[in-house]
Amino acid sequence: MNQYNINHLRELEAESIFVIREVAAQFDKPVMLFSGGKDSIVMYYLARKAFWPMKVPFPLLHIDTGHNFRETLDFRDHLMDKTGGRCIVRLVQDSINQGKAIEETGYNASRNVLQTVTLLDALAEFKFDAAMGGGRRDEEKARAKERFFSHRDEFGQWNPKNQRPELWNLFNGRKRMGEHFRVFPISNWTEMDVWQYIYMESVEIPDLYYTHKRQVFNRDGVWLAWAPFMKLKPNEKVETIDVRCRTIGDITCTGLTLSKANSLEDIINEVAATRVTERGGRYDDKRSESAMEDRKKEGYF
Question: 44, 16 in Cβ contact below 8 A?
């Protein structure tokens, strides 16, 4: 009798594809959230595998803060052209113009948290009843509390004490009118798993993840990219150095990593050796001890 063994990456891949197919089977109108970062890229790659040779049967949704890296937006458009995918884009600037979101002021002003308003409006506009996200349990303690199928009430809010049990591979997607679910197909992956999978499958990623020269400044120990909308403190100066993104989000809160990694092998070796967590450089997570959980309760990704 032949033995059948698969490595841990193939097991994670199979689990994620199963979750994505469950979403397509259980919900009427699912959507996949897409940021242009490595996690959402891998999630979309898995979705394409899940339904191949058919096209992915649901659209992607990108909430554009207006303060994204240009390279991220270019990569998003390139990927949709290449794969024939459909990506809906909604702008935080529109929410600000409509008076639904109030732009922050001051040195630490960011549009990151304002994405919640635009996201909830977009989910209501299209009546999406399941929104798949690339959150992983190893990223942050609030994300570690999430189940694969995570219930949201009619206001899009999350109650971590009111989650449904998930026994074996049984997922409960029952909901009342107006409620929806957030689903996390790569919840059990680690940062290293994602990088090893990208390497194994030769998944295309934005150049931002590789070391490049960029104008940056240091704020409270975090290297932030300079942009015309970034307000510098008197003691801060812009300099050009070699950096790369370890996680990609809004420019105002995405910490950059000093690095010499020019290949996927270099990145994997760097991640294996570092003592800093992936979100350790995210400026938005430094706002308070419970910053992520507070945002998630209000409907954040």
Answer: no
Segments in the chain forming alpha helices (H): 8-26, 38-51, 70-83, 92-97, 115-126, 141-144, 191-201, 264-273, 291-297
Instruction: Please provide the DSSP assignment of 103-162 as one string.
Output: ---STT--STTTHHHHHHHHHHHHT-SEEE----TTT-HHHHT--SEEEE-TTS---TTS
- Which residues of the chain fall below pLDDT 50? none
Give the pLDDT confidence score for residue 169 in this predicted structure. Answer: 85
| Per-position b or e across 44-64, b if 16+ CB within 10 A of its CB | bbbbbebeeeeebebbbbbbb
Beta strands across the sheet bearing 60-64: 87-91, 60-64, 30-33, 130-132, 180-183, 149-152
What local confidence, expressed as pLDDT, does residue 278 receive? Answer: 77
* Cis omega (within 30 of 0) for bond into 53: yes
The token pair at 223 is 């290297």
How many Å apart are CA 56 and CA 248, to the nearest integer?
24
Write the CB contacts of 152 (distance below 8 Å, at least 6 apart in sequence).
158, 179, 180, 181, 182, 299
The reported pLDDT for the residue numbered 301 is 67
Q: How far apart are the first and last CA of the chain?
A: 46
Residue 164: per-residue pLDDT: 86
284 neighbors 291 (Cβ within 8 angstroms):
yes
Q: HSE (CB half, 13 Å, CA atoms) of 226?
A: 14
219 in Cβ contact with 6 (< 8 Å): no
Q: What is the DSSP letter of 298?
A: T
- Nearest-angstrom CA–CA distance, 19 and 9: 15
Sign of the C-alpha dihedral computed for residues 78, 81, 85 and 91 taken in this order:
positive
Q: pLDDT per residue over 173-203, tens digit each?
A: 998 888 999 999 999 999 999 999 999 999 9
Q: Which amino acid is at 286?
A: K
